[in-house]
From TrEMBL:
Its main location: secreted. One of its GO terms (cellular component) is collagen trimer. Keywords: Collagen, Secreted, Signal. Residues 74-109 are annotated as: Disordered. Transmembrane segments: none annotated. One of its GO terms (biological process) is positive regulation of cell motility. Pfam families: C1q, Collagen. It comes from Gorilla gorilla gorilla. InterPro entries: C1q_dom, Cerebellin_Synaptic_Org, Collagen, Tumour_necrosis_fac-like_dom. Residues 1-17 form the signal peptide. The gene is C1QTNF8. It is found in: Secreted. This is C1q and TNF related 8. SUPFAM superfamilies: TNF-like. Residues 112-252 form the C1q domain.
Length: 252
């Protein structure tokens, strides 16, 4: 009776319910369980651990981007202009361009206004020095632009500054000394001198001076121990003093 009863009990009870026997987990028939239990087959463990896959070549799938790439979309709205960047270094000099066309003739300019100044005076009457220093007056006016030369005072007053050419001509007197200075304001600028002689001669002196507006040019007679005189007569003009502007100061 005991043997049939045990057989019946073995058929009714599951394998894991038998006393004294280790319980084995359920294993799927399609693929091994994960993680493999202690009663799993060695081939299943090796499969999940990858031991069997290590010897096999790895196959990496490739995807054709051209197939996945869609059509080009429409252009978007233009964004705002960015800030101006820093100024870069100057570039190399470019090639010389072609010669341009001749421009149109401009309007006529204003008439050139050139400054003029000139004088030329003379003395017909001879003169003897009566003082240590004596200004030589003149009695004949040849050229006197704008009345700049004062005959009675014997002075030219500069109104147009610039470079002037000046010349002095006299006739000496027999047996008398001739000693004259061409004066710039109060300073002697040049001398005209002739020693006493039995024959009278013509003497001349010329120079150039840079005159400023308001400067005065005149002739001074200088008396020393001897008589000082210049010869003249009413019929002829022996004594002349002349000057003219060579170049105005604005053009220097």
């Amino acid at each position: 009776m005991a043997a049939p009863a045990l057989l019946l009990l073995a058929l009714l009870l599951p394998v894991g319910a038998w006393p004294g026997l280790p319980r084995r987990p359920c294993v799927h028939c399609c693929h091994p369980a994960w993680p493999p239990g202690p009663y799993a087959r060695v081939s299943d463990r090796d499969l999940w651990r990858g031991d069997l896959w290590r010897g096999l070549p790895r196959v990496r799938p490739t995807i054709d981007i051209e197939i996945l790439k869609g059509e080009k979309g429409e252009a978007g709205v233009r964004g705002r202009a960015g800030r101006s960047g820093k100024e870069g270094p100057p570039g190399a000099r470019g090639l010389q361009g072609r010669k341009g066309q001749k421009g149109q003739v401009g309007p006529p300019g204003a008439a050139c206004q050139r400054a003029y100044a000139a004088f030329s005076v003379g003395r017909r009457e001879g003169l003897h020095s009566s003082d240590h220093f004596q200004a030589v007056p003149f009695d004949t006016e040849l050229v006197n632009l704008d009345g700049a030369f004062d005959l009675a005072a014997g002075r030219f007053l500069c109104t147009v500054p610039g470079v002037y050419f000046l010349s002095l001509n006299v006739h000496t007197w027999n047996y008398k000394e001739t000693y004259l200075h061409v004066m710039l304001n109060r300073r002697p600028a040049a001398v005209l001198y002739a020693q006493p002689s039995e024959r009278s001669v013509m003497q001349a002196q010329s120079l150039m001076l840079l005159l400023a507006a308001g400067d005065a040019v005149w002739v001074r007679m200088f008396q020393r121990d001897r008589d000082n005189a210049i010869y003249g007569e009413h019929g002829d003009l022996y004594i002349t003093f002349s000057g003219h502007l060579v170049k105005p100061a604005a053009e220097l």
